[in-house]
TrEMBL record:
Keywords: Cell membrane, Membrane, Transmembrane, Transmembrane helix, Transport. The keyword Repeat does not apply. Belongs to the GntP permease family. This is Gluconate transporter. It is a multi-pass membrane protein. The chain crosses the membrane at residues 5-22, 28-45, 57-79, 99-131, 138-156, 176-196, 232-254, 266-289, 301-322, 348-375, 387-412, 432-449. GO terms for molecular function: gluconate transmembrane transporter activity. It is found in: Cell membrane. PANTHER family: GNT FAMILY GLUCONATE TRANSPORTER (PTHR30354), HIGH-AFFINITY GLUCONATE TRANSPORTER (PTHR30354:SF22).
Length: 450
């Protein structure tokens, strides 16, 4: 058994070296690491990719379609100006001393359907513009907004990480969605607006100068013009629709009503693929009509969304392939057995494994995918609620201490004009606080519902 654990450690170490040192794309690193792990575990070299390709196929079929639909919804909201409308409306209602809370709320709402990178691109120019107009330190607004985006990225489907973990652990998506939103709210409050008050004292820098702010103002304007934008309620309805459909299906399922004709229909429309498909069609019709897009324009925008998700989809698929290699070789069972013998709480174990991989690779997605594959054998005897909490614990671990091997670290540093040290005191600390607070709240919920 020790040889299988060594094979797993060497395989993960190879992935870490390829990503962090060689700077190889995570897709290729996961692919090569998976083959190396299989060979080290005793799989014949000519079959080293067999489990990997099986895992890639199952991951794309189970998660890839959802990621693609989420990408379409996100770009439609962005290009129609719907995301800007949500942010502008919330900010217009907030007094100056509540702007940090308003930015956290804006990011929380916008972050539900948008990938983290897209949300950052949308919100940071707005953060810089508002900080300059309000004459406030950029950290006072930026940290709450980034906390909202990052928490959604870690805890709430249809973001790739939670979707992959749900698929790997066979957790209930609707239940995970509901618990994820429940846990994300206090986590964002503690790690965002409240923690930002301390960070402002440590890093009281103002927004970059007039030239950068002018550029940011231009970037923050909607792409379709003010007259073609959807209303606030219309934009929010696109975000809320899949959430309501999936939560309704979960309620019907838990209430034991899914055998009735109405119950079957609700469960069907609340299935993730159906819910996101319905929302995608709804968003296409609503936002295209409000923006006045012709059919060719709409098709062009939808097509452009696939380019933005291609890299994410490949990484997620390769992570699924690596997970399947761990499962088929028996490595996952051995590691899970070792954790069980150590009497470690499965939730803490999932968080810890994700933390270690996150620190080594700098990728939240790689951390979530790999950790869920390693921890999967521990999930066999867990209740549905505990399975969902395990997904969320892994998600919390996946965002621990973003540092120099994470692209997000440099993105925030450059946008906010901070030094490396200042970025550690703000962005890195916020990510760590999110991770630890998320774990603590997950454990508390676990005790309550046990």
């Amino acid at each position: 058994m020790s040889s299988l654990i060594i094979a797993a450690l060497l395989g993960i170490a190879l992935i870490v070296i390829l990503i962090a040192v060689v700077k190889l794309h995570p897709f290729l690193a996961l692919m090569l690491g998976s083959a190396a792990t299989a060979i080290l575990a005793g799989v014949p070299y000519d079959k080293s990719f067999a489990s990997f390709t099986t895992g890639v196929g199952s991951t794309v079929s189970g998660v890839g379609l959802l990621i693609a639909l989420g990408g379409i919804i996100g770009i439609l909201l962005t290009r129609s100006g719907g995301a800007d409308v949500i942010v502008d409306t919330i900010l217009a209602k907030a007094p100056k001393n509540k702007l940090g809370w308003a930015m956290a709320l804006s990011a929380f709402i916008v972050g539900i359907p948008l990938f983290f990178e897209v949300g950052v691109v949308i919100l940071i120019p707005i953060i810089l513009l508002v900080a300059r107009r309000a004459k406030m330190p950029v950290v006072a607004l930026g940290i709450p907004a980034l906390a909202g985006l990052s928490a959604l990225h870690a805890f709430v489907p249809p973001h790739p990480g939670p979707l992959v973990a749900i698929d790997a652990l066979h957790a209930h998506l609707g239940m995970t969605l509901g618990l994820g939103l429940l846990i994300a709210v206090p986590t964002v409050i503690l790690s965002g607006p409240l923690l930002a008050r301390l960070m402002v004292r440590w890093v009281p820098i103002m927004a970059p100068g007039a030239e950068t702010s002018a550029q940011s103002e231009g970037e923050g304007e909607g792409n379709s013009g003010q007259s073609g934008r959807p209303s606030f309620l219309e934009a929010v309805s696109v975000i809320i629709l899949p959430v309501l459909l999936m939560l309704a299906a979960s309620v019907v399922d838990l209430a034991g009503l899914k055998a009735s004709p109405a119950g079957r229909a609700i469960v069907w429309v609340g299935t993730p693929l159906e819910a996101l498909t319905i929302t995608t069609v709804y968003a296409m019709v609503l936002l295209a009509f409000r923006a006045g897009w012709a059919r060719e324009k709409l098709n062009s925008i939808v097509g452009s969304s696939f380019a933005s998700i291609a890299g994410i989809l490949l990484i997620v698929a390769a992570g699924g392939g690596f997970k399947q290699t761990l499962v088929d070789s028996g490595i996952g069972e051995v590691i899970a057995h070792s954790i069980t013998e150590a009497n470690m709480n499965p939730l803490f174990a999932g968080w810890l494994v994700a933390v270690l991989i996150r620190l080594a690779t700098g990728s939240a997605t790689v951390a979530t995918v790999t950790a869920s594959g390693i921890i999967a054998p521990l999930a066999v005897n867990l209740s549905p609620v505990q399975l969902s909490l395990l997904v969320l614990a892994i998600g919390a671990g996946s965002i621990f201490l973003s540092h120099v091997n994470d692209a997000g670290f440099w993105l925030v540093k450059e946008y906010f004009g901070m030094t490396v040290g200042q970025t550690f005191k703000t962005w890195s600390l916020m990510e760590t606080a999110l991770s630890v607070c998320g774990l603590v709240i997950v454990l508390l919920v676990s005790v309550v519902v046990h």
